[in-house]
Design brief:
Elements lengths: L6 H26 L14 H8 L7 E3 L5 H7 L3 H8 L33 H14 L6 E6 L6 H12 L4 E7 L2 E2 L2 E2 H4 L16 E5 L3 H18 L3 E6 L17 H8 L3 H11 L5 H24 L23 E2 L6 E2 L8 H9 L14 H4 L8 H6 L4 H32 L1
Parallel strand pairs: 1-2, 2-3, 3-7, 6-7
Antiparallel strand pairs: 4-5, 8-9
Helix pairs in contact: 1-2, 1-3, 1-10, 1-11, 2-3, 2-8, 4-11, 5-6
Amino acid sequence: MADLPDAATCYELLARMTLIRRFEEEAGRQYQRAKAGGFLHLGIGEEATIVGTASVMRKEDYLIGTYRTHGHAIARGTDPKHVMAELFGRVDGTSGGRGGSMHIFDRENRFMGGYGVVGGNLPIAAGLALASEYRSEDSVTVCMLGDGASNTGNFGETMNLAALWKLPVFFLVENNLYGMGTSVERHSAQTDLSKKAEGYGIPGKRIDGMDVIAVREGVAEGIRLAREESRPTLLEAFTYRYRGHSAADPEVYREREEVEEWRAKDPIETFAKRCIDAGVLGEREAQEVREKAEQAVLGAVEFADASPEPPLDTLYENLYVTDSEGWYAVDERSPEPHRGEREDRMPEAARELAEAGAAYAGQPEEPRPNPATHGDVQEGVPPEVAAEAEGPEADDDRADDDEDRNSEVAAETTEEQEVAEEVED
């Protein structure tokens, strides 16, 4: 067993793990109260893996996680208030209330997000490391993934590129023994996940993910190799989640005795006892970190509850794709469907109804057009016409627009043919 660090470091490790544990417990409670919406994946039991990793990272290093990352953001320095506000879907959340539990993000602290797609963070981690190389930065990307992600195609492709390009990236597999509700021996032919990247030239080893000091030492060495030698490595940390895969998980795939066995190895309680027995910390310090965590989490709930919800008019802001030819989204919350991403040009009637929260109030008595038989409302309609056209003139406008578009396409086709003929000559 590795030696304990100094008292100040031990206090910080214990305090951070305790804060994350208390935050997760309260997040589950707020989810049951319907304050937090969407999906909720708690990491209760995995605190040593989270805190041990973040504790040896530099400020300029990048961390990218999975969809179970409330604690990862807090460990990197994100204020718990903003993490809780994100779970509540409020404007003061880390993603402005748009991402929820699975999409915590903090660019300032270089926590590059949680991702709902299993293994989706792997190639992004390689991209972050490649960017560091291009910029000649002395930063390392730490990519944390679950045991299930080691079976995805992204895993092999990312390991190959990381080794081939000698990227400054370090991979940590949080093996909590289950991919959702499937045990590791049932979803992975190779159950020693530390060996899974060896075929690509990335060595691996196993550590006890319930021991925060063991995690610190293992991750520190992996980061050193990535930073000083551009050698990507992989670490498999055995850890355990005390709660189900998500808040809606009935946990029928494991026995209660198994959970209790792992609770006996609780990373917080065992570390606190070890510090006290060694005389590094006292009972007073252990109680102090609990009280501070309680105050911080209750304050986070109060902050999140007071934070406003995003204004309705911002529903379609920050979209990745918008163009002038088609509609990215259709807003049908009123009798006048309009282009979703142009909230600023919605019909006045639609605005009034939307603000009142009555999507179809005042709808005409005649049935609404059925897209299956009448076509989509935006089909063939330029955006400006769609928001303004009314009455029988709309059909004439649509026909004129279609004719103009056909003429443009014909002209482009003729031009392309002429260019092709010139190239052949």
